[in-house]
Amino acid sequence: MKNTTDPYQLRTGAPPAETYLRLRSVSGLSAMTAEGAEAGLPNTWHGVMVLCADEPVGMGRVIGDGGCFFQIVDICVAPEHQGRGLGKRIMAELVGELERRAPAGAYVSLIADGDARFLYEKFGFRPTAPASVGMYRDV
Fold it and tell me: CA 24, 25, 26, 30: dihedral to nearest 10 degrees?
């Protein structure tokens, strides 16, 4: 039976660029350019948006090569909608799709900022250190 009191619904697919840029900004993620969003979003392997009254208030994506390597990115929820389990719903959708479609043995990674690691641990993610250390470089 559907919960009719739940104001949130999940919609699969990558967000439009303007939604992507807005949600990253309001949730405190680093800024991306419109050019980067327009180029990158069509390459989403699996994406999900959380809608409240048809307004996108959260999102997450899986990117990767479709076979060996995947990365979970852009997990965010607008501040006024945080604390309602939406990040957990986003992760459940993304991990569920990985479990359904990704080949056995595929490597799935993500970067856990701050306390987000506690959410990701609930889905089986664990730190790579000290065996390996994540690194990055801006272009």
Answer: 70
Within a domain: 135: no
**Is 62 inside a domain boundary?**
yes
Per-residue model confidence as pLDDT tens digits over 4-41: 689 999 999 999 999 999 999 999 999 999 999 999 99
C-beta separation of 46 from 15 below 8 A? no
Token digits of residue 102? 């990704």
**Whether pTM exceeds 0.90:** yes
Instruction: Please enumerate in sequence order all residues whose Cβ is within 8 A of that of 67, keeping only pairs 6 or more positions apart, or say none.
Output: 103, 106
Q: Which two tokens stand for residue 12?
A: 């699969």
Q: What is the number of domains present in the chain?
A: 1
- What is the per-residue pLDDT across 73-123, written as a single tens digit (0 to 9) for each? 999 999 999 999 999 999 999 999 999 999 999 999 999 988 999 999 999
